[in-house]
Amino acid sequence: MPQIVIENLFNLRINSISVHRKVIEIIHENGIDWMHACGKKGRCTTCKIILKSGEENLSAPNKVELDFLQQGRLSAGERLACQAELPSGEIVARVGNFNKFPHIKYSE
To answer: Confidence class of residue 18 from pLDDT cuts 50, 70 and 90?
Structure first.
């Protein structure tokens, strides 16, 4: 079963009974606000996640993510939540400082 752990949201664990879903879909289906300025279309980087572990459990980076990596808008260990799929396993991630919402309390 796919699972997402968000470290700086007090190690929040999100389980999904669905497989091959986008990370942001799993997060939103569980009632958690996650930034996505372009409407989850892969046109910006506001939904990026910082991976701490479990990168091998995600789909391979697609062309959109590779282009952002090449442009320097994504760094190694960062993925777009609207593009990366979590077919199985667990990922441990963080919300980047730039991507935090002011109305959410984060643990640091």
So the answer is: confident
Question: How far is 52 from 91, CA to CA, in rounded Å?
Answer: 8
Which amino acid, 8?
N
Q: Is the pLDDT of residue 24 over 90?
A: yes
Residue-wise DSSP of 59-78: PPP-HHHHHHHHHTSS-TTE
Q: For residue 22, what are the CA distances in angstroms to 19, 71, 84, 99, 106?
A: 9, 23, 6, 18, 23
How far apart are alpha carbons 24 and 49 in whole angstroms? 9
What is the distance between the alpha carbons of residues 43 and 33, in angstroms, rounded to a whole number? 19
Note the pLDDT tens digit of each residue in 69-96. 999 999 999 999 999 999 989 999 999 9
